[in-house]
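pls ignore typos typing on phone
iron/sulfur cluster + seq
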Amino acid sequence: MIISEQKPFEEIQEYLGDEEKIFIVGCSDCATVCQTGGEDQVKEMKEKLESEGKIITGWMILNPACHLLEVKRGFREKKEEVNSADSVLVMACGNGVQAVTEASGKVTHSALNTLFLGSIQRFGQYLERCSLCGECILEQTGGICPVTRCTKGLLNGPCGGAKDGKCEVDPEKDCAWELIFNRLKEIGQLERIKEFKPPKARSKGQQWRVILERKAAAVG
Ligand code: SF4
Ligand code: SF4
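k done
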């Protein structure tokens, strides 16, 4: 899930400047779960902006905001409200903001900071688990990601600085490589810790190129 937080209201006001009429968009998926861009938060934002003298021409919750076809469909349905607005305030992740920008053709403002791809620990608490590197090595690391969870991002750890299982850089965090060691031992795969993991081809993180090429080949 994409974890997000709401930007401070003052920052959002700054973005909107002297624009008077605003259309607000939320997202039914991650931003709803994070309580940053679900229906309740969109309604709250509407009230707050109205109390500051803005006119809200309309709002909608996209299902979800990162689905371009869905976004286009939503904007067709709300054409009049959107067209009469000076801009669209998007309460979704950065991906959603860009889909709305493309689909609406309007000036868009992002109301959220997109933080990371994470797991939900409990309500309102999230764990950063994947950095979308495009070349997953979880098979070799007992299902624990060193790219994201080792503070130095070491592919071939540990660095040797851990103390009592905690990271030398950030003692608040468990040493990812100790977790990996323990996990591999537990599942009878400790030998794997010796497998060399070569430097990552960062370009592989940009999978969109690969996807586009595949699509082009399929069509052509
Ligand atoms: S190795 Fe890469 S793709 Fe796999 S979990 Fe870690 S960051 Fe994500
Ligand atoms: S102590 Fe562990 S988590 Fe911290 S940088 Fe070293 S290997 Fe990575």
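Strands lie at 2-6, 21-27, 55-62, 87-91, 108-110, 112-122, 125-130. The mean pLDDT is 92. more later
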